[in-house]
């Protein structure tokens, strides 16, 4: 892109993990999409504990699905208010067999596969929370390696 080309956005990727910070990031993603007449693709990234628990059979997959759908319903309301199309997806943020699979590269791989023009994700919170959210650790990685513009909120 050079200075003579206008900046355009067709798809905004909003990685989420169910946290308040990621819900706030979706609000920003919807605002960007609204400004550029684009759509939002919300990617729910499952955490290490959830993935391990599902693989071991110790986590109720139906409960995880219900919680994830509940979060998607909340952000759908935000998108509908702005009349912005919203697509949702879920992916594992970790793998027990691939060391290179972590939330940061899941976000970047998804951005490439959906041809995202812009990424909005939560940054690490300034509080010292006992339970780290999934995307806290991904923000720095995405900021460093994304080929798309990134807004970290």
TrEMBL record:
Superkingdom in the source lineage: Archaea
Positions of the UspA domain: 10-152
Name of the protein described by the UniProt record: Nucleotide-binding universal stress protein, UspA family
SUPFAM superfamilies per UniProt: Adenine nucleotide alpha hydrolases-like
Coiled-coil annotated residue ranges, if any: none
InterPro entries linked: Rossmann-like_a/b/a_fold (IPR014729), Universal_stress_UspA (IPR006015), UspA (IPR006016)
Pfam family for this entry, one: Usp
């Amino acid at each position: 892109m050079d200075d003579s080309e206008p900046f355009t956005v067709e798809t905004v990727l909003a990685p989420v993990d169910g946290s308040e910070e990621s819900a706030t990031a979706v609000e920003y993603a919807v605002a960007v999409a609204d400004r550029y007449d684009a759509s939002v693709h919300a990617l729910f990234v499952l955490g290490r504990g959830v993935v391990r628990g599902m693989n071991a059979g110790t986590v109720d997959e139906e409960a995880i699905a219900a919680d994830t759908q509940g979060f998607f319903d909340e952000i759908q309301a935000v998108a509908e208010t702005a009349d912005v199309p919203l697509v949702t997806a879920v992916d594992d943020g970790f793998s027990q067999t691939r060391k290179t699979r972590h939330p940061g590269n899941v976000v970047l791989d998804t951005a490439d596969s959906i041809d995202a023009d812009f990424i909005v994700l939560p940054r690490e919170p300034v509080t010292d929370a006992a339970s780290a959210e999934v995307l806290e650790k991904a923000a720095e990685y995405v900021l460093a390696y994304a080929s798309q513009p990134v807004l970290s909120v």
